[in-house]
Amino acid sequence: MSDPSNTCIEFDNVVSGYKDFMILNNLSLKVRRGAITLLMGPNGAGKSTVLKTLFGLLKPRQGRVLLNGQDISGASQKDLLAKGIAFVPQGRNLFGQLSVFENLELGGITLGMKTTHARIPEVLDFFPRVKERLHSRAASLSGGEQKQLEIGRALLLRPKVLLIDEPSIGLSPLVVQDVFKLLQRLAAQGTTVLMVEQNVKSALKYSHDAIALESGRLVLHK
Asked: Which of 80, 157, 193, 222 could, after both became Cys, cross-link 85 (CB 3.0–4.6 A)?
């Protein structure tokens, strides 16, 4: 972590939270470019708050958030998407009554339909089971297929940074392995992955780095 040119994301003494309740307390951390970094810690430690602050859902009250050395503190989600940051939040975030294809179209709405339609086949190559269900309603997919569709929607943007919150929730161990292996493939292609995951034992097998938080502060980085 001593090489600044290899740092993709940096939090510099960030204070962030909800209204008057601050979760991150002068948090400083660095995330390596092209690595899978696991954020871990007990409930309330600030893991999801890191992702939300990075993606502009929460504005830092103090400190700086840097992307490749550039200050992005308080930038809009539209600007962050344009800079190559994509976010797959916790839970299900699909339009259940729409088809798989229509959900993908909505994922690429900032790209325009021509570009989106050109990229959908390359995204589906990552997810053969989802590809088979292209014209099915998203609500009819299994939990694992829905999570894969959410990730696929994010991949349409060809993100340089992928933020993913609790990808294993509600999934079978085999599907969880598939998701982690996909993240490995993305990292091998140069994508920086920052992941929050309670299933630490499994996630560590697929991660390059691990950051442990407690009460909104960094307590371990290895």
From this structure: 80
Question: Beta 161-165 vs 85-88: how paired, if at all?
Answer: parallel
Question: Which DSSP symbol is given to 41?
Answer: -
Residues 158-201: tens digit of each pLDDT: 999 999 999 888 788 888 888 899 899 999 999 999 999 988 99
Q: Contact 168/199 with Cβ under 8 angstroms?
A: yes
- Whole-angstrom distance, CA of residue 140 vs CA of residue 104: 15
* DSSP codes of every residue in 82-126: HTTEEEE-SS--S-TTSBHHHHHHHHTTTT-HHHHHHHHHHHHTT
Backbone angles phi, psi at 148, to 5 degrees: -65, -40
Residue 114 has pLDDT above 60, yes or no: yes
Residue 35: φ, ψ to 5°: -115, 160
Single pTM value for the model? 0.91
Of 39, 63, 41, the residue nearest 51 (C-alpha): 39
What is the CA 161 to chain-centroid distance, rounded? 7
Here the tokens at position 131 are 């590809």
Query: Cα 67 from chain centroid?
Result: 15
Tell me the CA distances in angstroms from 164 to 45, 94, 102, 196, 220, one per residue in order.
17, 15, 22, 6, 20
Q: Is the dihedral of CA 138, 141, 143, 145 positive or negative?
A: negative
- Among candidate residues 94, 85, 97, 167, the one with its CA nearest the CA of residue 137: 97
The pLDDT confidence band at residue 3, using thresholds 50, 70 and 90, is low
